[in-house]
Each structure stands twice: as structure tokens, then as C-alpha cells.
Amino acid sequence: NAGVTQTPKFQVLKTGQSMTLQCAQDMNHNSMYWYRQDPGMGLRLIYYSASEGTTDKGEVPNGYNVSRLNKREFSLRLESAAPSQTSVYFCASSEGGGYTEAFFGQGTRLTVV
Amino acid sequence: AQSVTQPDIHITVSEGASLELRCNYSYGATPYLFWYVQSPGQGLQLLLKYFSGDTLVQGIKGFEAEFKRSQSSFNLRKPSVHWSDAAEYFCALHASGGSYIPTFGRGTSLIVHP
Description:
The structure holds 2 protein chains of 2 kinds.
Chain A: E1 4-7, E2 10-13, E3 19-25, E4 31-38, E5 42-49, E6 56-57, E7 64-68, E8 74-78, E9 87-94, E10 103-104, E11 108-112
Parallel strand pairs in A: 2-11
Antiparallel strand pairs in A: 1-3, 3-8, 4-5, 4-9, 5-6, 7-8, 9-10, 9-11
Chain B: E1 3-5, E2 10-14, E3 19-21, E4 24-26, E5 32-38, E6 44-50, E7 56-58, E8 64-68, E9 73-78, E10 87-94, E11 102-104, E12 108-113
Parallel strand pairs in B: 2-12
Antiparallel strand pairs in B: 1-4, 3-9, 5-6, 5-10, 7-8, 8-9, 10-11, 10-12
């Protein structure tokens, strides 16, 4: 029962470096999401994928790209990391109906120096 | 556009005392409402949800919440808090049309004194 798996758990980047955060779910969910969590800001949606083959911008998409590789996997890419992207990143998935809850990964703590 | 407001950033209670965490929402139709809990260093876990029917819903760990349409509120309650309840609590809304994307409040940090 893995649920939602995110890798890596921790990462330190230098300004300008790139990296991809990986996310996979084994619950056959249609919808997947990437959020960032900052102190006092709650969870803010970066990108989401309502179904395989589709992706859409959320509230804070600048500086990020995503790929819905297949139904299981949804990756988040930082092309040129900036200190403002220091945050905790959460991947989540859901069946997609309004009454269905989101299931979250353990998070990736990213520091950009 | 929908929004969720959690007015209290921090709440401090003594162990054994009752608890109420506030959540207000803004949405033009009936929303789907959720409460999640986040323990330190962990992802979010569902406590309870409301989408229709009885406006008082029961969740895990002895929590309950009441949906009040007239007040646009969905407050979380627990009659007796345990030290292990110390965590961050998030109220969330799924719009009842469109992509059902979860919108979260900013969270309330619960501190429990022995």
C-alpha cells in the first residue's frame, strides 16, 4: 500500500540549477496535483492534471513545468531554480470527483541557495 | 472563485480541554468540504469530509465538524484533546463543478499543553 510516493525527500540546489521532482501513485487515480507549502501560506497549487494527457496551471505556476507521463506518474521540473522556490513540495492524487479526498505524498523539502 | 479562510494561525489548548477550529468558505454553490491533518514532517491525512446529508459529520480520531450554510462555515471540534493531536490542520473546499481542484486554507497550528 504505497499510495503516493515522492522522490527525493530532501534536496539542496544552487541558484540556476535544474531538477525534477518525481511523483507516482498506485491507486489508479485520474487527477494529480503539485502543491507548495510555505509558512503562513497554506498549500498553493502549482499545476494539476485532471486526467492522463492533460495538465493545467494552478495559482503559482511560474518557474515550473510538469509532465503527466502516464496515469501513475506526474513530475514537476524546475528549469532554473531560484531562492524563492525554497519550499516543501507535495504531490497529491484523487479519483477526481468533488466528494473524493486527495491523498498526499510525504513531501520534498527543497532548499535553493 | 472559491476561497477558504482559517482565521486562527495558532490555537493553544490544554490536554483534556475541548477544541474548535474555525473554517469559513466562499463559494456560490454547495461545496464539498474537508478537514485534513498534517503531523510534523508528514503529508496531509484526511480527518473528515462533507458533501451532502447530515450537517454534522464524524471523522477519525474523535473529531467532528458541522456544516452551517447560513454562516458559510465548517468548524472542526473535538470534546477532549490529547497531546498527540498537536499538528497543523487544514480546511479544504472542492468546487462542485469543473475540475474539483482542492483549495486549502492557510492552516491552523494546534499546540497542546500538558
